[in-house]
Amino acid sequence: MREARNHIAQAIASEESFQALRTKLRERGGIDFPNIAPSDRPRLLTDFAINATQTASLGFAMLMLQCLPEELAYMAVSFYHTSSSSPFITSDIPYAILPSRSSDSGIEQFIVPFSSSVAAVFDAGEPPVYRHRDASATNVRRVNAAILSNAREFLISRDPNVFPGATL
């Protein structure tokens, strides 16, 4: 998050850099700031939010964290498939980034539930390969726990009993 904040701070530092950010966001994410005055730009660091689909939120996050796509390219990707009796959840923050335990920078896992039955888990500790796997109960709990711990305002699940009340 600090990297994203620093990137935005650099992008709003001058008129030229802000216009470059606007162009990039408009072309890649369909997002624009048509009426923002130069004096309002510092609020982008504190008051900025997007209500978007999971895909758009993920795309924006990847754009703002320039290092993320490069890191993901070197990771194994497991697409976990689960049943409706044990669904994946999502939230207002529809992904989770687990930092590397072995270094101060870097990502150990990047987790994105695409639906209640499919989630992608990017793993840094394995060679880059794509695979589809049946999700065990442990896989579903880990994905859901990561999304739950990252949520700020709300969770979305097709099953209201996916978590015991005491957990929430």
What report would you give on this structure?
The chain is an alpha+beta fold and 168 residues long. The protein has two domains: 2-48, no CATH class; 67-156, no CATH class. It is 34% helix and 19% strand. The protein contains five helices and seven strands, in the order H-H-H-H-E-E-E-E-E-E-H-E. The protein has helices at 2-11, 15-29, 54-64, 67-73, 137-150; strands at 76-81, 90-91, 96-99, 107-113, 118-123, 130-134, 155-156. The strands form two sheets. Strands 3-4-5-1-6 form a five-stranded mixed beta sheet, sandwiched between helices. It has a two-stranded antiparallel sheet with strand order 2-7. The chain is globular and about 50 Å long. 15% of the residues are buried.
How big is the Rg? 18 Å
Unreliable segments (pLDDT under 50, ≥5 consecutive)? none
Strand segment count: 7
Through-space gap between termini? 24 Å
**Percent range for β-strand residues:** 15-25%
Order of helices and strands: HHHHEEEEEEHE
Number of domains: 2
General form? globular
Largest sheet: 5 strands, mixed
Instruction: List the total number of helices.
Output: 5
**Percent in helix:** 25-40%
Q: Report the mean per-residue pLDDT as an integer.
A: 80
Q: Trace the largest sheet across and list its strands.
A: 3-4-5-1-6
Structural class comes to alpha+beta
